[in-house]
Every structure is written in structure tokens, then in C-alpha cells.
């Protein structure tokens, strides 16, 4: 007697039989393999959402990995310069004065395929906080220093270096006119992928390197226009050098960084062209050692009287005519030459009015000589002789009863209104010549 069966049994058997009859035997044998492959694919595609135990490196090395990416030292080999042009100014381009607009638009007209951006007094801090804050390079010391500094020229110098480190591209002061397209910055004989930075000579007057006033600025690269790839160590080191220098100045003056007082020469040597040049030369020498190149120490002598551009440690150095033509010194040529790529108009360079140069009470500033050797020599001689005259006057004054004239040179040189008298100044010059002759005898 047959055992009782479920009412579903015949249907199941019949459906299975139908499926068996419709699917070929070989395909039925491959179905398990297809199912396994499908499962593996799904598992692979969804691996990121499956729970997993954290690796030791992710727990302990996460900060190190972040610092490694933050302090990226190399990796620009084989890359091109970012197609970006940066400028900084008080206002955005919509509020530019006509003279600023006229120079700024030359960059976009001659480089239509480049991105153009201006950072202003209203958004510069936000940019620094974004790029160097917790979500960027995570350098709170840089953000705090930038937030603290009040000197406009110091912030301007810092900002250009920070931009070039973070994003790279071309930087140009707002009063710099573009004469040629940016692609002319690199001569055709060079491969852009073999260069990390493009700079030019600004002042090439090494004969004044020992001068008490002109010495520190007598040999310098131009930093009102230059081009760099992002994350170059020299840019970050320059920023760090400036921060250390500002802290030292503040400590020496006994005030916070926000209240320090800086002279013209301190700005030039601390954040401007002199600081820029020193950092570049140090970087060149360090790169040379890292590449185990047997060579001499790189100094300014390697760039003195530079006729043709040269590449040193992946930095392309252009001659003075390229970025600093028309200065009237350093054999800088003129802007009509084919080699001149930009023109600096200087109309935005009013910061020296807030950071005084050394000015002699009679002979004024030696910078007015514009590096003319004869003029500088005469200025030095006149100032030295004037110092002797002033010393003798002070000695005689100390022997006079109180209430008499307080200063011989003021009595000789000044009108009652406090204006230098040309006739008396001429007499004073003859007196100085007489003193110099006596001193030489």
C-alpha cells in the first residue's frame, strides 16, 4: 500500500520535471558556479560597507600619513605648472581703480586659458584658514601668525608664499603688467616637466654687498612675479623662516607680533626679496647635496651678469631683463626688448611710507642714487664728513653757556622756517671738503 502523499508533491515533481526538460543538462551543471561567482562579485563591490577590524597602521599612523601628505617634498617631476594666475589686493576686481584694472586685465587677455583669481583684504584670512587649517595642511601656527600680523606688507609677502605652496601657478603684484603670454616664461629649449620654479634676477649689484645700507638688498631675485609648482619645500620653509623672524623681532622689542615696528630694510631682509633670495640659494644647495652632485657651493656669483637663463636644482633662473626690465641699473635693459616679459609700474608700492628708510638729515636716502657708484660714493663721503662736523659742533656746543645756539649745522643750514637753504648748503659742502682734505693730510 502506498504511503499517503502531500497534495503538493505531484505539482512539485511535475514542475521540476518541466524545468529539467527546459534547461539543458550542461547549463544546469554550471548554475552553482555562476551563483558562486555572483556572490563573490557582490562581496567585492560592497567590501567598503562591511565591518572590519581596524588595522594597526590606521590607528597609529593616521596622523603620520596626514603629515606626510602635508609636507609633500617631491613628486613634481613629470608634472606641469598649474594654469592659474594669482594676485592680491585690497579689493576685488569689480572695485579696481582704472590703473589697477588696466594692468590686471593684461593677464587674462594674454592668457585666456588660465584661471585668474584675486585674494583681497576681505577673503585672504579665510583662504589661509581653509588651506592651512584642520581640513588643509593642518598648520595652526601658520594660521595664527597670519591672523596676528598687522603690517600690510608682511601679510602680502606671506600670502604670496602661502598661495604658491598650496596651489602653485603664477604670482604677480597688482601693479605688474603682463607683456607676453605665460608660456614664454619657460624658453623652448627647456622641458616644463623638468622645472619646479621660474624666477628672475631683480638687483645685481654685488659691488655694494658690504655697504652698510645697500648691502643686504644688492643681490636679489625678483618676487613681484614668479611661477612655482605646488608644495615646493622652499615656499613652506620661507614661511617658517618669516614666522621665526617675526617672533624674534617681537621678543627683541618686548611687544606682541601685532605691535612690532619695522623699518624698510627690516622688511626687505625679513620677508621681501632678500629673504626670498636667501631661501632660494639655501634650497638649491640642499637639493644639490640630496642628489649627490659633486659641485661647488651655489652663491650669487652663479647668477651675476647672467646673460642666458639657467636651471639650478630644478629652478629656472631668468636674467634681469625678463621680470625686472627698465630699472635703470643692473643692466636691466628696457621693456621694448623681446626678452622683457612683464612691466612693473610700482603704483601699488606705497608701503615704504609706513616703514621708513634711513634718511640723512641733509643728504637724504642713498637709494635715490639708484645704484650709481659715483653717487653712492659721494653720499658716503658727505655723510662721513658731516658726522665729523657734527661731532666737532657738539663738542663746541658743550663748552658754550646754556641758552646759545643748540646746533652748529642747523644754524648753518636751516632757514627760520626749517627749510634747507641752497646757498648755505653749498657753503657747508665747501666746509666738508676742507675737513676731508685735512683728514687725509
TrEMBL record:
Gene3D superfamilies, per database record: 3.90.550.20
Species whose genome carries this gene: Apiospora phragmitis
Signal peptide residues on this chain, from the entry's feature table: none
Annotated family: Belongs to the glycosyltransferase 32 family.
One family name in Pfam for this protein: Gly_transf_sug
Keyword field: Membrane, Transmembrane, Transmembrane helix
Protein name: Family 32 glycosyltransferase
Transmembrane segments: 30-47
Record carries keyword Signal: no
Highest taxon listed in the record's lineage: Eukaryota
Amino acid at each position: 500500500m502506498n504511503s499517503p502523499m502531500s497534495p503538493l508533491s505531484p505539482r512539485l515533481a511535475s514542475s521540476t520535471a518541466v524545468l529539467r526538460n527546459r534547461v539543458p543538462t550542461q547549463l544546469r551543471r554550471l548554475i552553482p558556479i555562476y551563483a558562486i561567482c555572483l556572490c563573490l562579485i557582490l562581496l567585492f563591490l560592497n567590501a567598503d560597507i562591511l565591518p572590519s577590524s581596524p588595522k594597526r597602521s590606521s590607528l597609529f599612523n593616521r596622523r603620520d600619513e596626514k603629515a606626510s601628505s602635508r609636507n609633500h617634498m617631491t613628486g613634481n617631476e613629470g608634472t606641469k605648472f598649474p594654469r592659474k594666475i594669482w594676485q592680491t589686493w585690497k579689493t576685488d576686481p569689480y572695485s579696481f581703480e582704472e590703473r589697477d584694472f588696466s594692468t590686471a586685465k593684461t593677464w587674462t587677455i594674454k592668457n585666456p586659458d588660465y584661471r585668474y583669481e584675486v585674494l583681497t583684504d576681505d577673503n585672504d584670512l579665510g583662504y589661509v584658514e581653509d588651506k592651512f587649517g584642520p581640513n588643509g595642511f593642518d598648520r595652526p601656527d601658520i594660521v595664527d601668525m597670519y591672523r596676528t600680523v598687522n603690517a600690510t606688507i608682511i601679510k602680502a609677502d606671506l600670502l604670496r608664499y602661502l598661495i604658491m605652496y598650496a596651489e602653485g601657478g603664477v604670482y604677480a603684484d597688482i601693479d605688474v603688467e603682463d607683456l607676453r603670454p605665460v608660456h614664454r616664461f619657460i624658453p623652448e629649449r627647456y622641458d616644463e616637466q623638468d622645472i619646479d620654479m621660474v624666477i628672475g634676477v631683480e638687483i645685481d649689484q654685488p659691488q655694494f654687498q658690504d655697504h652698510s645700507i645697500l648691502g643686504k638688498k644688492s643681490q636679489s631675485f625678483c618676487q613681484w612675479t614668479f611661477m612655482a609648482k605646488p608644495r615646493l619645500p622652499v615656499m613652506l620653509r620661507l614661511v617658517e623662516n618669516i614666522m621665526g623672524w617675526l617672533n624674534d623681532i617681537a621678543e627683541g622689542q618686548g611687544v606682541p607680533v601685532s605691535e612690532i615696528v619695522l623699518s624698510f630694510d627690516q622688511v626687505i631682509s625679513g620677508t621681501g626679496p632678500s629673504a626670498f633670495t636667501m631661501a632660494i640659494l639655501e634650497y638649491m644647495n640642499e637639493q644639490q647635496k640630496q642628489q649627490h652632485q659633486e659641485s661647488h657651493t651655489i652663491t650669487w656669483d652663479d647668477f651675476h651678469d647672467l646673460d642666458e637663463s639657467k636651471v639650478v636644482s630644478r629652478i629656472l633662473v631668468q636674467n634681469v631683463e625678463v621680470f625686472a626690465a627698465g630699472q635703470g641699473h643692473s643692466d636691466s635693459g628696457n621693456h621694448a626688448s623681446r626678452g622683457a616679459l612683464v612691466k612693473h609700474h610700482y603704483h601699488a608700492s606705497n608701503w615704504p611710507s609706513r616703514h621708513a628708510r634711513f634718511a640723512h638729515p641733509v643728504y637724504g636716502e642713498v637709494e635715490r642714487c639708484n645704484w650709481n657708484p659715483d653717487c653712492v660714493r659721494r653720499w658716503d663721503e658727505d655723510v662721513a664728513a658731516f658726522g665729523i662736523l657734527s661731532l666737532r659742533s657738539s663738542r663746541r656746543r658743550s663748552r658754550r653757556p646754556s641758552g646759545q645756539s643748540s646746533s652748529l649745522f642747523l644754524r648753518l643750514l636751516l632757514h627760520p622756517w626749517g627749510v634747507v637753504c641752497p646757498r648755505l648748503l653749498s657753503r657747508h659742502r665747501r666746509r666738508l671738503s676742507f675737513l676731508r682734505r685735512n683728514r687725509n693730510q
